Automatic annotation (TrEMBL):
<dbReference type="GO" id="GO:0006465">
    <property type="term" value="P:signal peptide processing"/>
</dbReference>
<feature type="transmembrane region" description="Helical">
    <location>
        <begin position="154"/>
        <end position="173"/>
    </location>
</feature>
<dbReference type="Pfam" id="PF06750">
    <property type="entry name" value="A24_N_bact"/>
</dbReference>
<comment type="similarity">
    <text>Belongs to the peptidase A24 family.</text>
</comment>
<keyword id="KW-0808">Transferase</keyword>
<keyword id="KW-1003">Cell membrane</keyword>
<dbReference type="InterPro" id="IPR000045">
    <property type="entry name" value="Prepilin_IV_endopep_pep"/>
</dbReference>
<keyword id="KW-0489">Methyltransferase</keyword>
<feature type="domain" description="Prepilin type IV endopeptidase peptidase">
    <location>
        <begin position="111"/>
        <end position="215"/>
    </location>
</feature>
<feature type="transmembrane region" description="Helical">
    <location>
        <begin position="105"/>
        <end position="123"/>
    </location>
</feature>
<dbReference type="GO" id="GO:0032259">
    <property type="term" value="P:methylation"/>
</dbReference>
<feature type="transmembrane region" description="Helical">
    <location>
        <begin position="229"/>
        <end position="250"/>
    </location>
</feature>
<keyword id="KW-1133">Transmembrane helix</keyword>
<keyword id="KW-0378">Hydrolase</keyword>
<dbReference type="GO" id="GO:0004190">
    <property type="term" value="F:aspartic-type endopeptidase activity"/>
</dbReference>
<feature type="transmembrane region" description="Helical">
    <location>
        <begin position="130"/>
        <end position="148"/>
    </location>
</feature>
<dbReference type="GO" id="GO:0005886">
    <property type="term" value="C:plasma membrane"/>
</dbReference>
Amino acid sequence: MLPAALSATFLPIGLLAASPFIGSFLGTIIQRLPEGRNWTTARSCCEHCKTTLGSRDLVPVVSFAVQRGRCRYCHCAIDPFHLAVEIAAALVALAAWLVHGDDPPAMALACLLGWWLLALGWIDLRTMRLPDALTLPLIGAGILHGGLNGHALAALIGASLTWATIELIRVAFLKFRNRAALGGGDVKLLAAIGAWNAPDMIGRIVLLACVGGFLCYGVMVLRGKTGALWSRAIPFGPFLAAAFFLCWLIS
């Protein structure tokens, strides 16, 4: 009973405490992975003076606040991007705790899934790409999760059918309208959604993502940015990722 009690107490606390550090790591992935840069061993440095940063410069949230958003060496302004990702990762952990705080394994899984989706959505927002290095393992993880719960075949079928259906729609739209409605990365993210979720939940996630996208479009229209919108694509990945995480929490 004691290990279970300790797990119920300290695992949620540990996840909440670690979340800003996870966010800092995710920020590195978001910045470097799309550019093909080393995100595993390369040391962090100031973007302006290129000075290698020490541990005191890399404490999530705290370093930014203490240094007032400026490099300790050259005093140039620090991009608030990392701070935003650190806070977002902490909010993911907080949401998982609010929903699954009494079930540490479920909270841990929700955190891992949420952080993964946070990286995917943010990369798509910045680059209009969803890298295979994150989407394909997410599909595999969904099938593995299904297998651990006795639903490996259902997860595999869900991923395959979702991938085939959405890819068919994407290709048909491209052929008849001569423009892409979805990117290949969106198709793979939807396949991951199919691997992780029951069929009825897949439709809800897509619907919620579409509603979020239309609301965002409406806000941009009200702000007078319609011209820019008509001339470029809008990333769908962030809305899919957010809808996936939200539905996973409440399902």
